[in-house]
Structure formats: C-alpha cells, structure tokens
Design a protein that fits this description.
This protein is α/β, with parallel strands linked by helices. The protein folds into 2 domains: about 1-35, no CATH class; about 35-200, Carbonic anhydrase (Beta-carbonic Anhydrase, Chain A, 3-Layer(aba) Sandwich). It is about 45% helix and about 15% strand. It is built from 9 helices and 5 strands, in the order H-H-E-H-E-H-E-H-H-H-H-H-E-E. It has helices at about 5-20, 25-30, 50-55, 75-90, 105-110, 115-130, 130-135, 140-160, 165-170, and strands at about 40-45, 60-65, 95-100, 175-185, 190. A 5-stranded mixed β-sheet has the order 2-1-3-4-5. Bound molecules: cobalt (II) ion (CO).
C-alpha cells in the first residue's frame, strides 16, 4: 500500500519550522492554554476546514464537526463540546456553518438507503418536513438543495438556542451570539444567513427554560 500518510508527518515538520520562524514562542504560548472566542459547528466535509476558510490560527476556534453540521440534542459529543465551550471557555460566538453541495443534505433529500447513516440523515429529513411547503415548491433540484442547506443551518441555530446550556448563559447575562452561515464551495465565500440568536425571544414559548431551582 502506498504510504501517502508519510507526507503528513513531513508536512508537519515543515509547518513547525515555519511557525517558529515567524514566532519563536508560538508553541510555548499555545501550550499555556486556550481562550478561543468562537465555537464552530461545521460539516465533516474535507473541503470546509474551519481555520483555513476563516483565516484563524490555532487557539482561536473551538471546533465540532459532524455530517451536515447537525445539533442533535441527544448527541453527547455535541453537548459536551457545547457545554465546555460555553461554560468553561466562555466563547462569545457560536457559528453553525453549513455548505452548499453538502452530501449529507443531498442524501437526506433522496430516498436511497445507505445503511447506519440513514439514522443520522433522519434528523436532516425532519428539517425537510418542517419546511416542505417552501422546499417542495422549488422545482430545480440544485436550487432546492441549496435552500435545504440554508434552512437546515437555521434549524440548527434554533436547536442550539433551545438547549439549557445556551439559555443559562443568556439568563446569566453572559454575552453569547449564535450565528448561521453557509460556505459556498464554488467561490469560497461565506454567507451570513442573518439568523443570529442572542436571547430566547424568537423561540416558541414551549422551549423557554426558567433558571434551575
Ligand atoms: Co457537508
């Protein structure tokens, strides 16, 4: 088998040299701890790397990625990342960043069976059902998929705002904004969907959580 992975180790050595050339304290500073201002919830897709596309450095963004940037409220991984980011790191912004051409979203639009992943895609299909009137009306499949990516991000922003973790931060007057963005693979640009949540007021009352007794 081709040992293509070896180039990663080589690249790492080059990268270390480069960083030290620019800043001899680069690693010693980072080893002291992290104070990122942002939590990024993005897609696992290899074409959407959080740091590269936002021009941020190690230490600046706390990252969680999964297929189709989902906020599933029974996902221990997501909840643990969210809890640590909000309660310990006290990030100021949470960014859900989807991307056009998302394989997870496109698969969720179809009827093909893929195996275990169908259970994950079900969460995305549920988003389609919430928005089916708008989505079914878009006849062009590519355009429909693009809009589905956008409404999926909006739902994940909403789902973050429904969590006790985010709501407790708000009731403690901790500054925390939840943003919804979409990255375009075709031109590399990020679009802000303008669906930022900063408090519970835009959520249906049934999701409002009082402070813990
Ligand atoms: Co994707």
């Amino acid at each position: 088998m081709e040992k293509s992975y070896l180039k990663l180790i080589e690249n790492n050595k080059k990268w270390v040299k480069e960083q030290l050339k620019n800043d001899p304290k680069f690693f010693t500073d980072l080893a002291n701890g992290q104070t990122p201002e942002y939590l990024w919830i993005g897609c696992s897709d290899s074409r959407v790397p959080a740091n590269e596309i936002t021009g941020t450095k190690p230490g600046e963004v706390f990252v969680h990625r999964n297929i189709a940037n989902m906020v599933v409220h029974s996902d221990m991984n997501l909840l643990s990342v969210l809890s640590y980011a909000v309660e310990v790191l006290k990030v100021k912004h949470i960014i859900v960043c989807g991307h056009y051409g998302c394989g997870g979203v496109i698969a969720a639009m179809g009827t093909k069976q893929y195996g275990l992943i169908d259970n994950w895609l079900r969460h995305i299909k549920d988003v389609y059902r919430f928005h089916y009137l708008e989505l079914d009306a878009i006849k062009d499949e590519t355009q429909r998929a693009r809009r589905f990516v956008e409404v999926n991000v909006m739902e994940q922003v909403r789902d973050l705002s429904k969590t006790s973790i985010v709501q407790n931060a708000w009731s403690n007057d901790q500054p925390l904004h939840v943003h919804g963005w979409v990255y375009d693979l075709n031109d590399g640009l990020i679009k802000d969907l303008g669906v930022t949540f900063t408090c519970t007021k835009d959520l249906h009352a049934v999701y409002h959580l009082d402070e813990k007794l």
